[in-house]
Amino acid sequence: MIGNAFSSSDFLFTCVDLLLFLLDIGVDIWAAVSLYKQEAYVYFSLLLLFLLGSSMLVQVYSWLWYRYDDFKMKTKIEKKPSQCQLKLLHVFQLGIFFGLFHDDICVFIVLYGKDADAESVAKFLRQDLRILHFIEMFSVKSTFVLTLPLALSSVLKAIGSTLSIASFLTTYDHSMRTFLPEKEKHHMISLVFYFIWNLVLISSRIAALALFASVLPCFIFAHFICSWLVLFFFAWRSKTNFMEDPRGEWLYRTTVGLIWYFNWFSVAKGMRIRSVLYHAYILIDICILCGLWCWKMSTDPSDFVTHPLTTAACVVAVYVLGLLFKVIYYTFFHPNLDKDKLKGATITEEQPEEEERPLKATDNKRMRKLAENFFC
């Protein structure tokens, strides 16, 4: 029995986080093995290169956040490695695994009731881990798209990627709602709608990219670069302020452009109009991708697809359906609050930063900033 520490929902989302993390690793290994068995060594090499790039991106964020926090460690386990050893862990791509291991140790302590403060520490650490997993999730999915044309298990990989992203976004939403007042916490029906509209929108987007890559594999990389440049410019114009130094902020905007290639992500307050423009842009892009696929199928018919126009129309219709679910969610289930009503306000003069005090889950300033962008 889990005592006063974790609620059943916290424990459930912790298990889901770990399961999704392990599932992602397994699916990536499966895709690499499939390409190798097909003797597609160029795409196999690209896949490994992009996966390494994705890992390096996450490690950079992890290291920067340690530096922003002046390397203040929260528990005895975190204090074990020196600053030099911690840097080596990140260089060898093990920084996030150290954080994940430390989080699991805290959960173990909570479950067995040995430390009452371990719950808050575990929740605090999990906030950063979920943001890092969020970044890793979409950077890896871009790797999947760029190596899609020769993947033996493309359909299964697409389905797995879509379910993985939608499921993780639901756990990410659960983390942000930690900062809401108790009366604003979501009910199960809102969680279901949040999962559905993310699942439907992402599935339509990935399906359109998969169709395009199946007939014009040489142009998928060009499409990705051109789209990313547009979305990166959009992120720059949004005047984000998530990181604590200019170079870190440019890295964040680069990452936002990567995330927006697949799904909307609120990066500043008052983004409703820009959200509408974004979905209009993606809908037009999906129509163009499906149109090009139909054109190629008409000039070079395939026995596998007998009604390309119907297939393309279904992909576009699914995206429109996802937008409808999103409107329903934001109309009936999404809380809209002022910044001051969120928990975890910045430490005041009455509680200076140097003062020793118990760590709270809502003290994570990075997740709180994302919660401000999402709820305010």
TrEMBL record:
Predominant location of this chain? membrane
One GO cellular component term:
plasma membrane
Under InterPro entries, the record lists: XK-rel, XK-related_scramblase
Enumerate the UniProt keywords alphabetically: Cell membrane, Membrane, Transmembrane, Transmembrane helix
Tell me which Pfam families the record gives.
XK-related (PF09815)
Q: Tell me its family.
A: Belongs to the XK family.
Q: How does it sit in the membrane?
A: Multi-pass membrane protein
The transmembrane residues are 12-36, 42-66, 144-170, 191-213, 219-236, 276-298, 310-333
This chain belongs to which protein, by name?
XK-related protein
Q: Which GO terms describe its biological process?
A: apoptotic process involved in development; engulfment of apoptotic cell; phosphatidylserine exposure on apoptotic cell surface
Where located? Cell membrane; Membrane
